[in-house]
């Protein structure tokens, strides 16, 4: 490998203050590095140049620093060998030309001009390098953990709130369901009570009416109902209610009223008509005999005639018809009697 030419002797380093370096040669020539002397050889060890002819590589600075710091120790460690005097280049030029060199650990103090020992540009010792990164990593880790804990707390709070809302909704739904059930039960009980009260009132009314109304025959058998179809009736259907009984069985006035007709009525045989105070006419037909006459006042239970088989009949019975307002059509006598507390 090629190398730089040997350094000449430095006579300018011969100084009484350098006695610590041992016996000094009588004659030394000062070696001033020039562009020619520091030209790198061709090959892998080429060093880039910077303004003023100084190398930018930190290796050159490192060599100079090591030589400056340990010159004394190295010189004394050579034993009996003669001391070597080294002339250092002016570091102020390095300081001015390489501002970045001051930021290198341990180097900034060597090239400081001494104007300010507390210059903030002096880098921290090598032993402290990396502590900032460690602190930053720990701070980042702490921050991440705190953020994760905050997010977990928020998630827990949201879950708790959701559970509370669900529980509240469930309780509200249950309360609504209970209220609806209670209202429904109360409505049913109220309806039942109203129906019972209505039924009771109707029963009382019918009981009261029953005292003023009476079935026309005491002992009988129903043999014909209202609306029953048949060719034996001129209208095509049965227009009344038939109470079959033996001939001569007493016929009673169903309710108080006035006898408006009593006599023969063709197909009806002997017929008695009693008109009630509300205008309703009651027809008692097929009698064997009559006990009242027209214009006579009767009360409930009075005997007005006897069961017979006169007129268009197939056997002895009482044919009863009800004509509200005196109309000719008539209604079902069984329903009319039931409305007045009587069950035929």
Description:
The protein starts with 57 loop residues before the first helix and ends in a 6-residue tail after the last helix. Residues 10-14, 47-57, 71-78 and 116-129 have low confidence and may be disordered. With 344 residues, it is of the alpha+beta class. Strands 1, 2, 3, 4, 5, 6, 7, 8 and 9 form a nine-stranded antiparallel beta sheet that branches. A hairpin with a 5-residue loop joins strand 4 and strand 5 (270-275). The longest helix has 82 residues, at 131-212. 33% of the residues lie in helices and 14% in strands. It is rod-shaped and about 180 Å long. It is built from five helices and nine strands; from the N terminus they run H-H-H-H-E-E-E-E-E-E-E-E-E-H. It has helices spanning 58-69, 71-76, 91-97, 131-212, 333-338, and strands at 221-224, 241-244, 250-252, 257-264, 270-275, 281-290, 297-298, 303-307, 317-323.
**Helix/strand-derived class?**
alpha+beta
State the helix count: 5
For the termini, the CA-CA separation is: 147 Å
Average pLDDT confidence is 76
Largest sheet: 9 strands, antiparallel
User: H/E series, N to C?
Assistant: HHHHEEEEEEEEEH
What percent of residues adopt helix (DSSP H or I)?
Answer: 25-40%
Shape: rod-shaped
Rg from Cα: 71 Å
Share of β-strand residues: 5-15%
- Taking pLDDT < 50 over at least 5 consecutive residues as the criterion, the unreliable ranges are 10-14, 47-57, 71-78, 116-129
Q: How many DSSP E strands?
A: 9
């Amino acid at each position: 490998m090629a190398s730089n030419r040997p350094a000449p002797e430095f006579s300018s380093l011969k100084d009484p203050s350098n006695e610590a370096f041992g016996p000094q040669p009588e004659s030394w020539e000062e070696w001033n590095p020039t562009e020619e002397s520091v030209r790198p050889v061709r090959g892998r060890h080429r060093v880039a140049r910077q303004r003023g002819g100084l190398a930018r590589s930190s290796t050159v600075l490192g060599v100079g620093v090591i030589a400056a710091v340990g010159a004394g120790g190295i010189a004394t460690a050579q034993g009996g060998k003669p001391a070597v005097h080294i002339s250092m280049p002016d570091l102020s030029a390095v300081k001015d030309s390489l501002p970045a060199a001051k930021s290198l650990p341990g180097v900034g103090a060597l090239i400081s001009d001494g104007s300010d020992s507390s210059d903030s540009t002096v880098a921290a010792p090598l032993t402290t390098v990396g502590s900032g990164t460690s602190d930053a990593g720990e701070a980042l880790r702490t921050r991440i953990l705190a953020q994760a804990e905050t997010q977990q707390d928020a998630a827990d709070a949201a879950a708790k709130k959701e559970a509370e809302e669900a529980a509240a909704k469930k309780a509200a739904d249950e309360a609504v369901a209970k209220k609806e059930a209670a209202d429904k039960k109360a409505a049913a009980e109220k309806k039942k009570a109203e129906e019972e009260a209505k039924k009771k009132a109707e029963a009382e009314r019918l009981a009261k009416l029953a005292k003023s109304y009476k079935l026309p025959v005491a002992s009988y058998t129903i043999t014909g109902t209202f609306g029953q179809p048949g060719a034996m009736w001129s209208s095509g259907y049965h227009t009344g209610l038939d109470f079959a009984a033996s001939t001569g069985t007493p016929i009673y006035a169903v309710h108080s009223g006035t006898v408006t007709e009593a006599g023969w009525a063709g197909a009806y045989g002997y017929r008695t008509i009693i008109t009630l105070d509300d205008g309703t006419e009651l027809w008692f037909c097929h009698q064997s005999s009559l006990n009242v006459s027209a214009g006579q006042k009767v009360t409930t239970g009075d005997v007005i005639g006897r069961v017979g088989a006169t007129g268009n009949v197939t056997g002895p019975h009482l044919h009863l018809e009800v004509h509200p307002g005196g109309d000719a059509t008539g209604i079902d006598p069984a329903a009319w009697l039931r409305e007045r507390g009587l069950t035929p």
